[in-house]
Amino acid sequence: MAPDQFRWHRPRNPALTESAPGDAALAPTELPALRFIPFRRSDLRRMLDAAGLLKDSERDDFDAEAARIETHFAGEFHALRQQLKDCYASVDPDADTRTHLAAAGDGNDLAGLLEALLQRANYEKLSETDLKRAFRSASLFQLRLKVDLKEFQEVVLYCRGRSQRSEVLPLLFGLWKRRLKFVNYDRVVLFLRFPPGVDDDAPGRVMIKLFQNVPDADLEMLFPNTEVAMRWSDRLLMGVPALVSGAVVATTKLGAPLILLGALLGFWLGLRDKPVALDRPGLLALGAGFAALAGYLWKQWSSYRNRKARFRQALTRNLYFKLLDNNAGVLLRVLDDAEEAECKESLLALYFLRAAGGSATAADIDAHIEAWFASEWEARLDFEIDDALGKLERLGLARECEGQWILVAAEVAH
């Protein structure tokens, strides 16, 4: 087993270890295997060193090859960083710099560049089916959320770290509880392109946001135009007391004014021959009745507004803890995640190819890596071995020959 110092720093990821408080106890086999490697690159290097699968004579060679891998991707992603910044500059809503007309673009290449980058960072694009199913699901925060996607020119969501969870929701003032199962995303990137302005031909602005720990049933809350609407249970909680209090007001405060108004209306319509005298007591009764009615209506409207305000406050408070980054910050953060992922995948493939004696099939290396993570680190991975070995081949560190992957350094040594 790995040393204790690594155990203390193992991430508490419910998708990899145990369920969070309030979640159902899910067996490991029920959780999906992840493409994402849930360890930092530096920690992974220490984990590999502690694994002890390499001979002492091979460690220096592995360290030199690892440095070559990291240097290569550092240079590649440095160039990609500037390309992303240039592409986003003209559609960045937070930009505080001017754009030269000759260099200004419309940001149309940004979506493609971002999608390729997110793929390398082990994000997956949410399908339209997933999005529609999430919008139809009941919110875990017991709010009714509405989003008009027609306000956006382009909407794309990407997620990383999908896990099955459950939560116990109290109903009927806590008298009844219901366990609701849902899909939780560890990371969600929201890409929104707004339509061009009505009065100019400028390209639409692009908003990019990064969130953490988002239930699929609450994806609507991530959009800037989310509206909080009353559920039927909330309407009943407000409507029934309002009807009761309205009946009380009508019988106690509006009885005399209603009779007086009825008599006046009957006289004006010719249904009553005897005129009605509006003396001072009558006018006072009418005034008191209208004041009571206005007070009742104002109280109900204030109650409605206050309830919606509490809902919005709950939504805002929840988003405060889920939002990780905005716009250009998301690009730089995802760029760093992608570089980390590329290095980690390459290092793992290189290490376990060396551990196999410098020659092995892709299936054997893949099985060894996944078994090592599962047994030593309680992490179920779906390691992309073909992509990892392909990177080693492009770097000249390994090659394929008749179904066997061979370490180039070991081949040269022989």
Q: How many helical elements?
A: 12
Series of secondary-structure elements, N-terminal to C-terminal? HHHHEHEEEEEHHHEHEHHEEH
Give the neighbour order of strands across the main sheet: 1-3-4-5-7
Give the proportion of residues in helices: 40-55%
In whole angstroms, the N-to-C terminal distance is 33 Å
Hey, roughly how much beta strand do the residues contain?
15-25%
Write the layout of secondary structure elements.
Blueprint (H helix, E strand, L loop, with lengths): L3 H5 L32 H11 L4 H34 L20 H11 L3 E2 L2 H9 L7 E3 L7 E18 L4 E18 L12 E10 L11 E3 L2 H21 L2 H14 L11 H43 E4 L1 H28 L3 E2 L1 H16 L7 H10 L3 E4 L2 E4 H6 L1
Antiparallel strand pairs: 1-3, 2-6, 3-4, 4-5, 5-7, 8-10, 9-10
Helix pairs in contact: 2-9, 3-9, 4-9, 6-8, 7-8, 9-10, 9-11
Describe the structure.
By secondary structure, the chain is an alpha+beta fold. The protein has a domain at 232-310. 50% of the residues lie in helices and 16% in strands. It contains 12 helices and 10 strands. The chain has helices at 4-8, 41-51, 56-89, 110-120, 128-136, 232-252, 255-268, 280-322, 328-355, 362-377, 385-394, 408-413, and strands at 124-125, 144-146, 154-171, 176-193, 206-215, 227-229, 323-326, 359-360, 398-401, 404-407. The strands form 3 sheets. Strands 1-3-4-5-7 form a 5-stranded antiparallel β-sheet. It has a 3-stranded antiparallel β-sheet with strand order 8-10-9. Helix 2 packs parallel to helix 9. The radius of gyration is 32 Å and the shape is elongated. Mean pLDDT is 76; it is low at 1-29 and 198-202.
